[in-house]
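>> received
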Amino acid sequence: MRPLLIAAGIILALILGKIFLFNGSSDPKNDSSNSKKSVGGAPGKSGPSKPLAVSTLVVGLSNSERVVFSSGTTVANEEVEVKSEISGKIVKLNIPEGSVVSKGYLIAKIKDDDILAQLKKIDLEEKLALQIEARQKKLLDINAISREEFEISQNKVLTLNADKELLKVQLAKTEIRAPFSGKVGLKNISLGAYVTPSNVITTIVQFNPIKLDFTIPEKYINEVKLGKNIKFQTDGSNSDYFAKVIAIDPKVDETLRTLKVRAISQNPGSQLIPGMFIKVYLNLSNSQSIMIPTETVIPVTDGKVVYIKRNGIVEQVKIETGLRDASKLQVLSGLNIGDSLITSGLMTLKVGSPVFTKK
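>> returned
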């Protein structure tokens, strides 16, 4: 009997456990009642989101300078590699490296003994030819010789004179002089060296005035004219320099779609040297346009957007931008005069959320 009583007790315990443990399953009515509770605990309502305080700016027109920013390079006004026109031995060399020389300054002299000897010979032959011509002229006057004989002696004088002029030209080429005033570069040869027309003796650079080469986008072709003034700065310096446009490339770069422009600037103190990097500020015109703070513009995949407040609700507007300066950006389309541009809390805004302008 004892085992039977134990088995009956176990069965009774299981039945009671089923009744008290599993019979308290969730009631659908209770579930629906719980689901209706709001986050704050109030039953039956979710509650509207609280409006967010933001700063706004009323969009309007303002005077703006249409400035094109570009980069460029300083270029020498004149620059040349000094070479000899003829071959020969250098017998005189005077290259003051890094110093300024005047136009016509004698840089080098090539040995000219052979040319001087030929000139002396020509002088003697010319003297004799002139004497013969004079005698022939007297004989012609008394019809002792024919005109043909006189013309032969006359032609001899002219030929010798032409040969003499040719030697003088060759003699001038033995003197290598500065073609213009400028600063002499480094010396590449030494006294006594034999040079040919392919040897670079030195360089001469003129950079007062100095030229500037820079590029602008092709859409500004019609707004850049000869004589237009520009402002520029050198890399690492905040000093302003000014120049005037003197030439515009007649062809647009097909790859970059840019136009090359050349300007010229006075450089009395030689502070600017060729090859320097420059930042160019080209003021196209003053105009009335919508300018907004740069930080209010948010880049997206297909362009740029801003947030505005309209009827107390956040709206997102796609805009098209133009030129920019240090702190503001020009808006070409997308915003209207009178729109309330949101300038704060941009990262937390959601389209359709209620907002109000904080005072």
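>> Residues 24-46 have pLDDT under 50 and may be disordered.
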